[in-house]
# Entry
Amino acid sequence: MGAALLSAAMALPIVVGTAHAESAPEKGTLSFKYLNYKESQQTSSDAIAEYGRADSKSGASAYDERILVKATSSSLVVPLNSEWSMSGTLITDSISGASPAYHTQALSYLKDFRRAVDTSLTRYLPNGTLSVGMSHSGENDYVSRATSLLATRSSENRNTTWTAGIAINRDQINPANQVVLNETKRSNEVLLGVTQVVTMNDIVLFNLGYYKGHGYFSDPYKIYDERPRERAQQKFQTRWNHYFNDLNGTSRLAYRYYTDNWGIRSHTLDAEWVQQIGNGWSAAPAVRYYSQTAAKFYVEVDPSILPFPPSPPANAKYFSEDQRMSAFGGLTLGMKLTKQLNLDTKVDVKLEQYGQKGVWILSGTGSKGLAPFYARNLQVGITRSF
Amino acid sequence: MVPKAMPLQIHRLQFKAMGSACEVVLASHTKKEAESLAKLAIDEVLRIERKYSRYTTDSVIAKINQQAGYAPVACDDETWALFEFASQLFDKSDGLFDITSGVLRQAWDFKKLEVPSSQKLEAFLPLIGWQKVVLQDQSIALPLPGMEVDLGGFGKEYAADRAAQVLKQNGVTSGYVNLAGDMRFLGPKPSGEHWMIGIQDPRQSDQVVATLPLSQGGLATSGDYERYFELNGQRYCHVLNPKTGLSVQHWRTVSVTSPASVVSGCTSTMTMLKEADGLAFLQATGFDFLAIDHTGTVHVRQ
# Structure
């Protein structure tokens, strides 16, 4: 009976718990974020130990140096009037460190600098929104351009919102080692979604995504890396947010299923709890589990010849020894703290720790012979409305 | 530019609206900030009062009532949503919650201490009945001259929800809006503690029967002590059954908390109207409540 009365009240232009109708922002916001991401991986000889051949360590330290990314991001959202808003984001990041040339072995050093600009223009209509976005990202060897269009439409009572979007990406690849020259990658994406306010305290979302791309997908800096020139991906995502009145907290649960024509199938499970503490503080611990099967052209580690790269199977058209193409499971633990300093200023800090191992895969054995991979992500941000 | 973080302080801003004492309570860094925020909320309450008042001649409600028996009146989105809500309340209460029952006020004069005769009541009953109202193409038509609608049944609660929403949109995360006891909360005190809200004793207005800790959602109370008279030991209150025209008898007070003030308000009013069946109805809602029946027995959610 209570639920029936709540659903009746949802016809009214009032908002409860997590549900929100979209309208043009009344205030502009400026936010600045600093991100520090660091990968680490055990030395290759530790990985060999998995096969019982670790007689000695060849001088490398216990943890090899891996990628370090330091990035800053500045975003600005400006309401033009009650119907239009504009936003822009500028990201600069510096990447330094090393990444393996095959499997988790043979580090090759790199240093790069990237600058990306993302802009969008949104029109707020009585029953929906329309956004056009353009982005450009450039580093020494990779230039990427994207255009997107996103439309949302809400039902009369604002409890249902449908989303449809398309994106077109055009990338240009000119690797420093000149393995290839003026390569391109073109892709198109569509997204369809529905968000439903189920009760005053529950909101659920379903998204379907389809991606199709063709062009150069290989990694020019890896040994034995020849990937198909076509990639098609399908994604299904669902999310459920529930607000608990008694606890003044929100649970956010999400699941994503992904599959592509390379043979990778993945499951992602997300769980987050956002607790309002009072005094402007909120804390959000989060955990994510990810598991994927290997691409069908992934070449497994050959323990008999370690630490050398196995040759791709004879007559194989496509092959890759990139650990990202392997079968593995990953676990992320994170915590985000937010403090509302006053009505206009908010600061937040987020720390995440990620671990990845073949044996953590959901089912099956996972790829063997790869050293466990870890990453730490720290993000500090400040948002100010004006 | 980051302004120096000043400690959040609780500010109470009182005002008069809908014929009652009201207040906005919120935490902010300065009194000035609290006042400018409260003004936004108060303006919203006053907007709703002006728009839906039954005492003025130019309100939306007055215009609809003036056209009773003549012509349909087109409604804006907000008014239409309120009537759709009223329709659902009518259906879900088996016709007990009826926003056309206000004509009974013409039969009941609470100053005269007089129970209207059944003849007098019967003269008004044909003018009551939400099922007779024609709702079409976002317009409303009252088919009989003399029919009336009014939003007194949940207008104050709706205004509390709306005012709270305005504050929320402006970043308020600690405080509440209190419109003569119908309240909507925006979050706990800056210390993280709940707000402690006293529930008035229905027989001793200076006493509280309970204190409820609240930080979210809405609280509303209906009672037989707001407007009433007593005659031969029987109390006659202003909550009137639209089917019989008679004053309800069973409950002294019903307080309900739910995610929205407007939902709490219609739940407590429906409980009053359902009289002895009200307790089972309340238990079935799953909402927290505190209700005192005519014998003085206190009931809470089980």
User: Anything to note?
Assistant: Chain B touches chain A through 52 residues (CB under 8 Å). The two ends of chain B are 52 Å apart (CA to CA). The helical segments of chain B are 31-52, 60-66, 77-92, 118-124, 155-169, 261-274, 278-285. The mean pLDDT of chain B is 89.
